Amino acid sequence: MFNFEIVAGETVRQVLHDKRADVLGIVSSAYRAHEAGDSVNPDSYFLRFPEKPDSRIIALPAFLGADVQLAGIKWIASFPGNTRRGNPRASAVLLLNDYETGYPIACLEAANISAARTAASAAVAATALRPDGFAGTRIAVVGGGVIARNICDYLNVAGCAPDAYLVHDLDEASGQALADHVRTTQNRPATFTADLDEALRADTVVFATTALEPYVSTPFKPGQLVLNISLRDLAPEVILGADNIFDDVEHCLKAQTSPHLAEQLSGSREFVTGTLAGVLNGEVTPSADRPVIFSPFGLGVLDLAVGAFVLGEARKDGSTIEVPNFFGETRRW
């Protein structure tokens, strides 16, 4: 009961690198459990800084039942200025709590967990929302950072096999690095483009940026799939012109996301088509004559599901770090 373990970042990274297919299934199952009500996923809490408007630290508390039975919280910092120093934008920890006692049982480095669950979410959505596959199509990725790299990796594991990738980033070096990563790891054509409009014409468009407000006002066309992972790139009119799938409707329609702006502009939620779990369960089918946009706010239950899996794998190979006497008192008297 009073054991406490730490799982360091290198262990987390190795587990996730070797188990991407497992993570896809874990994320899919977590979505279904959440849809069925076997979870508690309150609002995320944002710590913002007046002198750093582009930076924030977010707390994501959650409980996931099903076969996880853990509560916990992810504490994730997003400081885009880090990238100017060549460092990753985000850093995070995940604290897991035993459901029976409430005691914390482990702390995991979670930037890798967060990136993996975000990328797996995109890949699960891609396969569900383009069921005929990706042969003969192009995927464009807008943004060339860590999340974009993970998304490309998970799309590949999920069997999304386009004819080619196109990468756009305001920083050409980052975009070229992602294109090179795709060519190297997937043996698939991938090129950088400085032309955003060219990227927006691809069959599937993935947004993985740090944008704080919309800059894309061009409507998408029927047959296009948009993975709106960074949530704030699209003007509300673009959202209103498509079928919209969310991970959780209430979570997505807040915090000035593009869907939230669409709700404010339209005064209703008629543009909401359904949830990804609804698609996975066969209860929601997007229209074939409109573009489809998937907008995931990012649920804490996904972090719990992936974190619990990583903890279990680390325990199996003995790579957790036990902290003796972590709790100062273990008896009431």
From TrEMBL:
Pfam family, one: OCD_Mu_crystall
GO CC annotation, single: cytoplasm
Any one GO molecular-function label of the UniProt entry: oxidoreductase activity, acting on the CH-NH2 group of donors, NAD or NADP as acceptor
Ranges in coiled-coil conformation: none
UniProt-listed GO biological process terms: siderophore biosynthetic process
Top-rank taxon, per record: Bacteria
Name of the protein in its database record: Putative ornithine cyclodeaminase
Native organism: Streptomyces lydicamycinicus
Gene: ocd
